[in-house]
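User: Please predict the structure of the protein below. I'd like the answer in structure-token form so I can feed it into my own downstream comparison script.

Assistant: Understood. Taking the following sequence of 121 residues as input:
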Amino acid sequence: MKVTQLLHASILVMEMERARAFYEGVLGLRASDKRPDLGYPGAWYELGVQQIHLIALAHAPQPVYDAHGGRDRHIALAIDDIAALKAKLDTLGIAYTLSRSGRRALFCRDPDGNALEFVAV
């Protein structure tokens, strides 16, 4: 047996409207129409062959271990223009930290406290 690919990452959120405003409005992702009715609110975002799945749970507290998301559970997303993301986050007042490894990367959190890493490729 050999693991060959990451297919999706699920992120727990408390309020779908607020989460969708971040993932769609701030990050520019478009919700997929491939998500079936699973009996609970959620959204899927396609990133090539991989996906991000938002799963709404009324009580989904996310622990915050450190202001820097690199020391927390997180997903990493490739981005083509990190300067544009910085400018957008600055304009919206969304806090972020730069990678401590020296890579062209930054970390921020979604409205539920989930850590996200953006790596310039």
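That's the full token string. Helices lie at 16-26, 82-92.
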